[in-house]
Structures are given as structure tokens and as C-alpha cells.
Amino acid sequence: MQRQNILGYTLPQLEQAMQAIGEKPYRGRQLHKWLYLSRQYDFSLMTDFTKELRSRLAELYQVAPLELEYSAKSKDGTEKFLFRLNDGRPVETVLIPDDDRRTLCISSQSGCPLACSFCATGTLGLLRNLTAGEIVGQLMYVRDKYGDDAFTNVVFMGMGEPLHNYDTVLEAVGIMTNPLGLKVSARKITISTSGVTPKIKKLADSGTKTRLALSLHAATQVKRAKIMPVAETFGLTKLMEAVRYYAETTEQRVTFEYILFDGFNDTMDDVRALAELVRGIPCKINILAYNEVPGLSFKRPSDEKVDWFGRMLFPRTPAVTVRKSRGRDIDAACGQLAARKMT
Ligand code: SF4
């Protein structure tokens, strides 16, 4: 019999699994602590279980953490991990240190169906949705390597569109935030979407305390549709209504991600359009220079242009951060490493 991988089971699922073998539900809580708090992957070392229970668990289940295929560390400290899933699909995770923040950028899918024209992951297409265990496994790998303080915040900005794997992503968030486990504060987790309008509203109504980021990258419908095919399905007007709804319902500030592409979205007209678009929404805008991807036509703007854009935007919008590109020497742009390894 194939043993199920128990990594990725939520607390209620662990309680049910214990009940199914005649144990009390509190055993599920103990197992949750072993797996996610102590990161103990060997049933035989779970010392508060009877010998019989340990052997029964080992008969039925395995604990299979993610397997690293490759990692690389940039001169600026950014570290990229490429994992190979049990069916051979790739998944990328990036750890980005920046002053006192250490951001862990995780994936929700292997590949991505949305085919944004500037993105290496988009060239792979959707390979498959990740399971909750494979999402949480990315955090666990990094904690196994660097300890409990390995990261300060988590962003779903790696491979994939998290809102296309909605239920599983929320399940994974439940595991990440459980005080009997990984104990990541929901406010330190950002779900970043390319703009799946109905799911933004659903997320707003779900009661989750996670943050929302929208990958905007262009401030008009025409321009956005040129680089993000998802914009043809979910137009900008309705999308912004959903973002407004999210901000009002959750009383949270939303982050807009705006990658600057040389000669595409970096003029004074773009500044004005962007400021107009977000007017009245409690928000922060992250400006980021494009990390060039070999084979794709987009170019990175000069550092001066990036600074200029940020300066022009700031008095017109409430909060602007200009983020340096990180890990340029290690193919840290989303999907770059996996795409390169598959060619
Ligand atoms: S930018 Fe994000 S949504 Fe677009 S193809 Fe890449 S991974 Fe998918």
C-alpha cells in the first residue's frame, strides 16, 4: 500500500486521521506539533506516542519533505531554491534578505497558466497546482536550514497564481499560521495575485488576515492587456472595484506591484494614470525594476529612471517604495531557474 505523505495535513485532518485509527483527537494536536513546530519527520522519535501508535503511523504514512535539486546564493544574499516534486515537476522558492526583513517568496503552482509576456514562469505553462504540503514544505525546508528566524514574512509571489489554487492556498495559510505549528502571523503573509477579480472578493469575505498584493504593472486596460492575458478576462475597472472592496471589507492597505519596463510603462503619462487609478484606495505602491529574462524582449530601465518614477509618483500617491532587483546574478526572477533547467 502506498503510504500517504502526511506533511500538509491541517490540524482537523490530523485529528481525523488519529480518530480513524481509534485514537483521541488530541493526538492529532500532538502530531501537528511534532510535524510543524518541532519539524520531526521520524515517527519513531515522537516520544509522547506509544510504540504501537508510532508503528501504526509509520505503516500508514510517510513524512516526505521537499527535495532540493539546486540552490544558488547571490552576492546580495538572495538565495534561490529549486525543488523537484515527486512527479518531477519543478518549484522555486527565494529567500530575500533586506536590512532587518527576510522575505520568503513561495510558489503556489508548478509553472503558471497565465502567460504574462515578461515572465519566465509563464513560458512553462501550468504544470500543476501544488498541494498544501508542497506549499508549506517550502517554509519548512528554509526553517530546517536556517532555523525558526529564517524569514520574517512570506509572500506568494513565486511560481503560479495563488488564487487559481485558492482552497489549497488557504489550507496552507491555515497550517502556516497555526500557533501549534509554524506560528507565522497572518499579517506577515501576502497573497499576491495577477488580478483574478472574483477570487479577490471571495478572499475579502473569507476572514483571512493575510495581506493582498496586486501585480498591476500597467495603469490602463489597453497596456495591461498587452502584457498580461489575464487582463482580457478580468478588465481593470472591475478589478479595481474588487480591490477597493477588499480594502474596505478587511480594513487593510493593499499593495500594488508595479514592475518598470524600459520604454513601456515608465513615462509621466504612466505616473499620472497610476496615481489616478489608485486614488482613494488605502495602498502602497512597490516599484520594481524588471529583471531581464533571456529570450524575452522586455528591458530593464536605468536606475535613474526607476528613482525618477518613484519620485514623481510619491506626492501623488500615499506610499511608494522603490525596490532594488535582487539576485540578478542567480536568475532570481520568477521561474527563470526552472525554465532554464527545463531547456
Ligand atoms: S507573472 Fe505571475 S501570474 Fe504572470 S505568468 Fe508569471 S507567475 Fe504567472
Task: Give a quick rundown of the structure.
This protein has helices at about 10-20, 25-35, 50-60, 130-145, 165-175, 195-205, 220-225, 230-235, 235-250, 270-280, 305-315, 335-340; strands at about 5, 60, 65-75, 80-85, 90-100, 100-105, 110, 125-130, 155, 190-195, 210-215, 255-260, 285-290, 320-325. It is an alpha/beta fold and about 350 residues long.
Describe the structure.
The protein is elongated and about 70 Å long. The strands form three sheets. A ten-stranded mixed β-sheet has the order 3-4-5-6-9-10-11-12-13-14. A two-stranded parallel sheet has the order 1-2. The protein is an alpha/beta fold and 343 residues long. It has twelve helices and 14 strands. The chain folds into two domains: 4-62, DNA polymerase, domain 1, CATH 1.10.150.530; 67-342, Aldolase class I (TIM Barrel), CATH 3.20.20.70. It binds iron/sulfur cluster. Iron/sulfur cluster binds at residues 112, 114-116, 119, 121-122, 159-161, 194, 334.
Distance between the termini: 36 Å
- Supply the helix-strand structural class: alpha/beta
Say what the CATH topology of the largest domain is: TIM Barrel
Task: Characterize the main sheet.
Answer: 10 strands, mixed
Tell me the overall shape.
elongated
Number of helices: 12
CATH superfamily of the largest domain: Aldolase class I
Side-by-side strand order of the widest sheet: 3-4-5-6-9-10-11-12-13-14
Specify the CATH class of the largest domain. Alpha Beta
Domains (count):
2
In helices, the fraction of residues equals: 25-40%
Mean pLDDT across all amino acids = 94
- The CATH architecture of the largest domain is Alpha-Beta Barrel
Strand content: 15-25%
The low-confidence parts are: none
Radius of gyration over C-alpha positions, nearest whole angstrom? 21 Å
Count of beta strands:
14
Bound molecules: iron/sulfur cluster
What's the order of the H and E elements?
Answer: EHHHEEEEEEEHEHEHEHHHEHEHEH
